[in-house]
Structure formats: C-alpha cells, structure tokens
Specification:
Structural class: alpha/beta
Bound molecules: 5'-O-[(L-methionyl)-sulphamoyl]adenosine
Number of strands: 18
Largest sheet: 7 strands, parallel
Shape: elongated
Distance between the termini: 49 Å
Helix content: 40-55%
Length: 512
C-alpha cells in the first residue's frame, strides 16, 4: 500500500488580488506534492480561498458589491493564479461552499458538546486586517496615537457579545503535545516561539462575532457568525469529507498532514488549531511548516506602499518554470528574502541557461550529430564513469531528504552539483575528440551523459514540470517511467532521439 500524504496551503483571503507571496506558498506545496507523487506517495493537495469575515465584508463594501459576488470574482483570480503557476492541486476549496458551512457548524457543535464553549462579552483589541485579537501588552502606539499590533496592523477597540472557546484548558495538553512531537512546528525557532507563547499563559478565545453578518451562522444563535479563523481552519477537514470522519478520503489522509503556512500565521495553526482538534476529539496533523516572506528591497510588500509584485507579470516576463525555480532556489524556505529582477535574471542565465541548458544542448546535439540520434547501450567501465554514476545515484536520496525537510533550495543545490559534475564529465571526456580517436568510448560517454540528463530531468521535474518533461520528451522517456522508481534504471536505446530544442534561453539584462 502506498503511503499517504495530505498537503495544504493556507486558504487565501479574497480581499485583494493575489501576489508573489501567495504564489510562493502554492508553488512550494506543489513541488512537495509532485515530488511525493513521483516517489510513490498517494498525495492529496489542497488549496483554496478564505472568504468570510470583517475584512472581506469591508472590501466588498468598498467595491460596492454584494460579498458573495465580490468573493466569487476574487476567488476565481486565486484559482487562475494556481493554474497559471502550474499547481497540481486536487481540490480548490472555498469557505462559502455549502459543504464547508456544514463542516464549520458541525465543528462548532463538537466544541460545544465537549463543554468548551460559553457565552460572554469581548472587550479588547481587534485587528481587522489580521482578523486577530491582541492583548494590550502586545501593542504599541504610533506617533499619531493609533495602536498597532506587532504585525503592523492597526487595531480597533471592540466591545461585543461573544462566544468563547476554553483555550486556557488546553495550555498543558498543548505543551505536552509539543514535548512529545518536537517536529510538529518547523523550523525549530518557530516551535520555540509557540512554546513560549503557550507557556506565557493562554486566555480563552473569542470565537464568534456579532457586529457584522458576513460569515457562517452559529447553530441556535443566529445573531453571531463563527470567528473567521475557526471557520477557515476547518477547511482542512471539510475537503476530506468532515463531519463524516468515516469518509474514505478522511480516513485515508487525516492526520497524515503537512500544513504549509507563512510565519505570520503560525499561532493560528500551531496553537488554536490543535486545541480545536483536541476539543473535537480528532487526531492532530503531523506538521505545520512556517516559511519566510518575500520582501521588496528589504520592505514588506503592501498595497499602500505600492511595491507589491505580481506573479503573472513575472511569468510573462521570464517564463513560468524560471519563476518557479527562482522562488524555490533563491532563499531558504524558513527565511525571509528579497525579490529583485537582477537576482532573477542572474539565476536564469547562470543556473538555467548556462548550467542545465548548455548541458542538455551539448549532449543532445552530439547524440544527433555523431550518432544520428541513436544511442548505443554500454556498461560503464572506468573510474570516471563509476564516480559519475554513483554521484547521480546518491543525488536522489539527498534531494529526497531535503524535500522532505522542505529545504527546497538545498535540494536544488544538490541537483546543481550533479549538473556541474556532468558538465565537467563532458569537458574531461571530450566526446568530440574521442570521435576521431576512439569511437566506442565516444558512444559510451554519450550514453552515460544522456542517462545523466534523464536523471537530472527527473530530479528537476517537481520544480519545473514543463521543462523537466520537455527534456524527458527529447530523451524519449515513456510517461509511465517518469518516477523515482525508474531513477536507477538505464535509458532505453530503442528509439531515435529527436533533434533537440533549447530549453532555457538567456535573458538580456535590459528586460529587468
Ligand atoms: N486566510 C488566512 C489563512 C487561513 S488558513 C486556514 C491568510 N490569508 S492571506 O491571504 O493573508 O495569506 C496567505 C499566505 O500568504 C500566508 O501564509 C502568508 O504568510 C503568505 N504571504 C503573504 N504575503 C507574503 C509574502 N510577502 N511572502 C511570502 N508569503 C506571504 O492569512
């Protein structure tokens, strides 16, 4: 039986158009999903949109539209982005779907049945743009007198009747859980932040809002809507068929789950979510992985500053696989990093055009020119060959370890060390010279190199699916053989390889 893995992106707020940060999380989940599928894992990849709450209601009012019509449009933009980024999602969930309303209300009833909900009044600070409550100690005062959260969001004083969730009751169970599952939140610094937050004491959490309408009604108390974060987190269960926990999809994928999230929403996934699940008597997910942010020249991207980067424009300008590669290669997943056009052009020209593009072009053109496209199988018989083959064989395991740790940039570094070794092998063996002196050896080197290219194509395929497949097409690799189970096998020599086409054209600097 194949292992199973459930991989989720956060569901995106539909108050504005998608930007590079949203594309980033989705591509990371896509790389992970594609890699796992090629590695014999049965994957369910979920993404979607978070459509309720005060922030969305406010954005719809500004746009002078009914919230449902407004969210329909913006949700579609997010879906188009996921498709444009070539994300292989299995489901795109929207929290305005009926199935989700039912699931969120069922979760509410489970929390209530556990005795974990009670009615009271919320008086305190609320940040609409984060949809989060803040304690006064977390806030600071700006020079103009407005109070701001650590995220920079403006907070408002709020006083309203509210239902509360007994979060305080889960302080010790959560600490015990973290102790027994030290890898629950990654990277480790985020786990430590969460542990100290919980150790600092948990207050009960307001989980309903009564001052606006746009949300899921609370069963039996229709003046309230469910707090948007409780509503939103349940999406991960809705997609698996919850509240029917006997559902085949549910039993198959829950709790073998990796939630990929940005560092700003770790508290919701690392504290509130496990507490809700404990209260509902459900098993907790395996991992929450928090990634860093893309900045623009060191600054946070925001609509008000006007420095938001549009991923669709980047696809037009540089190409889709080039963008996917850059996002995964340029910075380590847990850290923040700067987006610049200069860095992107540099990566494309040096890593893609020079290293990988040239390797494939050199090898495949020689196969055409010297062998008329017909490879001749051979047994590698000298030390240089053995070294090259061993390097390739070990590379898969290295990349697997890195991808499993969501260390995508390190996975790509390993692949690029193989590409560089293959380029050195070409220079060292010089098939163009062998052609005149030792034709048999030339055939051998071209066969080994073509097979190296096949392995490299399999390795880059989760990161750059179109280019990986183009390369595998040029090597006539059957689509059923594009998995890691075939990695250590050798290239078939039955077919005549087609005349190669270049995969990564260089970008001229002035386009930046
Ligand atoms: N709706 C909530 C998530 C609910 S999940 C149950 C939300 N939505 S969001 O649209 O504001 O953010 C979605 C994700 O995009 C977050 O993980 C956030 O970290 C990420 N990013 C937003 N801006 C980003 C960058 N500039 N860089 C990288 N990721 C960033 O939060």
């Amino acid at each position: 039986m194949k292992p199973k893995q459930y991989i989720t992106t956060p569901i995106y707020y539909v108050n504005d158009k998608p930007h590079i940060g949203h594309a980033y999380t989705s591509v990371a989940c896509d790389v992970l999903s594609r890699f796992k599928r090629m590695d014999n894992v049965d994957v369910m990849f979920l993404t979607g949109t978070d459509e309720h709450g005060q922030k969305i209601e406010k954005a719809a009012t500004i746009a002078q539209q009914e919230p449902q019509i407004f969210t329909d449009q913006i949700s579609l933009n997010f879906k188009k982005l996921a498709v444009a980024m070539n994300c292989s999602f299995d489901q795109f969930i929207r929290t305005t779907e009926t199935r989700h309303h039912q699931a969120a209300q069922a979760m509410w009833q489970q929390l209530n049945a556990a005795g974990d909900l009670y009615k009271g009044n919320y008086t305190g600070w609320y940040a609409i743009s984060d949809e989060a409550y803040y304690h006064k100690d977390e806030l600071s005062k700006k020079t103009d007198g407005t109070m701001v959260a650590p995220t920079g969001a403006t907070v408002e004083w709020s006083e309203e009747p509210s239902w509360f969730f007994r979060l305080s009751k889960y302080q010790q169970p959560l600490l015990d859980f973290y102790k027994n599952n030290p890898d629950f939140i990654k990277p480790a610094n985020r786990m430590n932040e969460v542990i100290s937050f919980v150790q600092g004491g948990l207050q009960d959490l307001s989980v309903s809002r009564a001052s606006f309408q746009w949300g899921i009604k609370i069963p039996d108390d229709e003046d309230h809507v469910i707090y948007v974060w409780l509503d939103a987190l349940v999406n991960y269960l809705t997609a698996l068929g919850y509240p029917n926990t006997e559902h085949e999809t549910f039993t198959k994928f829950w709790p073998n789950t990796t939630h990929v999230v940005g560092k700003d929403i770790v508290r919701f996934h690392g504290v509130y979510w496990p507490a809700f699940l404990m209260s509902a008597g459900l098993t907790l997910p395996k991992q929450v992985f928090a990634h860093g942010w893309w900045m623009n020249h060191g600054q946070k991207m925001s609509k008000s500053i006007g420095n938001v980067i549009d991923p669709l424009a980047l696809i037009d300008q540089y190409g889709l696989d080039q963008l996917r590669y850059f996002l995964m290669r340029q910075k380590s997943f847990g850290q923040d990093g700067d987006f610049t056009h200069e860095a992107m052009i540099e990566r494309i020209n040096s890593d893609l055009s020079n290293d990988l593009g040239n390797l494939s072009q050199r090898v495949l053109s020689m196969v055409q020119r010297y062998l008329n496209g017909k490879l001749i199988a051979c047994n590698p018989n000298n030390e240089t060959d053995q070294k090259m083959i061993l390097h390739a064989s070990n590379c898969l395991q290295e990349v697997r370890v890195h991808v499993n740790n969501l260390a995508f940039n390190r996975g790509l570094e390993s692949i690029w060390s193989l590409i560089s070794a293959a380029n050195q092998y070409v220079d060292h063996e010089a098939p163009w010279a062998l052609r005149k002196t030792d034709e048999k050896r030339m055939e051998q080197t071209l066969y080994i190199l073509s097979d190296m290219l096949r392995k490299i194509a399999l390795l880059v395929r989760p990161f750059m699916p179109t280019s990986g497949d183009l390369l595998l097409d040029q090597l006539c690799v059957d689509s059923a053989q594009r998995t890691y189970a075939h990695y250590d096998q050798w290239l078939d020599t039955e077919t005549v390889l087609p005349v190669p086409t270049a995969i990564f054209p260089r970008i001229e600097k002035h386009t930046g």
